[in-house]
Structure formats: C-alpha cells, structure tokens
From TrEMBL:
Belongs to the polysaccharide synthase family. SUPFAM superfamilies: NAD(P)-binding Rossmann-fold domains. Residues 10-284 form the Polysaccharide biosynthesis protein CapD-like domain. This is Polysaccharide biosynthesis protein CapD-like domain-containing protein. Pfam families: Polysacc_synt_2 (PF02719). It comes from candidate division WWE3 bacterium RIFOXYD1_FULL_39_9.
Length: 323
C-alpha cells in the first residue's frame, strides 16, 4: 500500500475485529498522522488501548460516540482525511426481532457518517458491507443493502468534487469475533456441535486479508464503486470438518435460523452487467455506468457456481492457517 502524504484515519466501530486487524496492518507506518477509534463501548476501548501498549503504532485517539449521533460524528471527523465505516448491528436472528434498532444504526447511522464526512471534507470514505446485502431475505441484509445504496450516492451528494465514497463487500470472516470458530471454541468437548444445515454454503476469508484489502481499496477506490475480494467458498459440512476434526456423529442438526439463506451471493443478476473481474477481486461500477464488457456470465454464489468453491478439507485448513 503506497501512501504519499500523511493521513488521519477514523474507524467507526474501531474496537471490533476488523478495526483491530486494520490497526495491525498500520503498525509501524510512519506516514500516518493519526488514527481515531470511534465506538460506543468504553470497556472495549480500554481493553484495546491496553493491547496496543508497546506496539509501534501511529498516534491513536479513542473517541466514545454512536453513529446515531451526528453532532458527535461531526466533532470526531474534524481534520480526518480517510474514514472506514465498520460500525453496524450484525446478528441476523436478533435483527428479525429488533428491526427498528437495526435500521437506526445501519441505515440512519450510515447516513450520519456520510453527511459528516461531506461536512468535514474527508478525502475518501469506505463502507464495509456483506454478502447478505445481495438479494437479501433478512432485515440485517436489507439494512446493509439500503446503506450500500445510500453510501454509493455520497459522492453525488458531496457535489462530485468532495468526498470519495466506495464500498467493500465480502462474506464470512475467519477469525472475527462472533464467527463460527468462536462458537465452536466455546462448546464443551463432550457436547455435540450444533449445525444449522451442513449443506449450506458460505464464502470465507481470513481477517488479515480483509484488513489489507480494505486499506488497498481505500488507497485507490473510485467514487460509487464496490470492491469484492475473490473468496473461497464451501459447505458448512466441509468447514466444520476442517475446523474441528469431527464428523456427523459429533453434530446436532438444529435447522436454519430466521433469515438464513442456503447459499449466499456476492454479485447479483443486475450487477454482473457492470462488473469487471480482476486477478484478485471484482469491481462493480455504479448504476448507470457501463465501462466494461463484463466477463461474468452468472451471479456469484457461494455454492459450486463460485470458481473458488471447494470440497477439499485441506484447502480450508490452509485458509485457517492464513495460506
């Protein structure tokens, strides 16, 4: 990642898994003026500050605030050049029972961040999205889809000469807080592992790779564009076998939770006509722009239609090891 001038970063939800991974990527970087961590939980900020002690980090400021609070965001963004917006409510079943709270944070909160970025004349701002925003069937995915649409129009709202707004979209992160790996680690060894549906498929990507991808895209993104890393996908059966070394005799099938899909998507039928495939990623142009003849013939699903789909347990083990 090439940085030609000193930047001031602000990361919303910066005490989460992705925020921490981004900080790890920025360790030792002398071309950064400072990093601001904007989040609600004072205990998580305290713990993160302790974890960073002794590391060669740029100056870091911890700011207590909620993305629902525009005035606080406006204060926090003064002098910031680059924003990574990770803050969100993310639990799919809980979203089904608390739709308004998810809309307040994921949609209205994103609007607040976007408008505060414009007011502060931030240079570039990246929104962190999810495959669940693509043809969503649950409230969480729908809220992220709305936020994507809003964010992608931000460069127009800024007059075309202000903040550069772009989106990164990806699937399940290996190593993130709340991931399937964490749930497995919490289980007593004598109990069976609860699995929703072993035939369900998901996209998977290691946390450090996501953090690097976000920073690289922030460095070179175009306004209104969406960036998607190429990701391995597999069934839950293969993933559980790779992560736990267990087989069907150790599992308890509990069925799908409210709002869950059998297979996820990263690119839908409408988007393939404005998608450019690169060696390591897909780039989706904004609606109304067709710059390329697309190389995609179908949507990007997490099942065997994904070119990187695998049923090889060793491949997944390599992914877990960061290969």
């Amino acid at each position: 990642m090439k940085i030609e001038y000193k930047r001031e970063y602000l990361i919303t939800g910066g005490t989460g898994s992705l925020g921490k991974a981004i900080l790890n990527q920025l360790e030792g970087n002398k071309n950064i003026k400072g990093i601001r961590i904007y989040s609600r939980d004072e205990l998580k900020q305290y713990n993160l500050k302790k974890q960073l002690e002794g590391k060669d980090m740029p100056p870091i400021a911890f700011i207590i605030g909620d993305v629902r609070d525009y005035r606080r965001l406006a204060e926090a963004l003064k002098g910031v050049t680059h924003v990574i917006h990770t803050a969100a409510l993310k639990h799919v079943p809980i979203a089904e029972d608390n739709p308004l709270e998810y809309i307040k944070t994921n949609v209205y909160g994103t609007e607040n961040v976007m408008m505060a970025c414009i007011a502060a004349n931030v240079k570039s701002a990246m929104f962190i999205s999810t495959d669940k925003a693509v043809e969503s069937i649950n409230l969480y995915g729908a809220s992220k889809m709305c936020a994507e649409k809003l964010w992608s129009r931000g460069s127009i709202y800024s007059g075309g000469w202000g903040t550069n707004f772009a989106v990164v979209r990806y699937g399940n992160v290996i190593g993130s807080r709340g991931s399937i790996l964490d749930m497995i680690k919490l289980l007593d060894k004598g109990k069976k592992i609860p699995i929703t549906d072993p035939e369900m498929t998901r996209f998977w990507i290691p946390l450090p790779k996501v953090a690097k991808f976000v920073l690289d895209c922030l460095d070179s993104c175009m306004p209104g564009y969406t960036y998607i890393p190429k990701m391995i996908s597999c069934s839950l059966e293969v993933f559980i076998k790779a992560t736990t070394g267990t087989d069907e005799s150790n599992w308890k099938i509990v069925g799908r939770r409210p709002g869950e899909k059998a297979h996820e998507m990263l690119i839908n039928q409408e988007e393939i006509f404005r998608t450019n495939e690169k060696e390591d990623k897909y780039i989706i142009a904004p609606q109304g722009i067709s710059l390329w003849i697309t190389s995609l013939k179908d949507c990007l699903y997490s099942d065997d239609r994904n070119p990187l789909y695998t049923d090889n347990i060793e491949v997944i083990k390599g992914l877990l090891n960061g290969d």
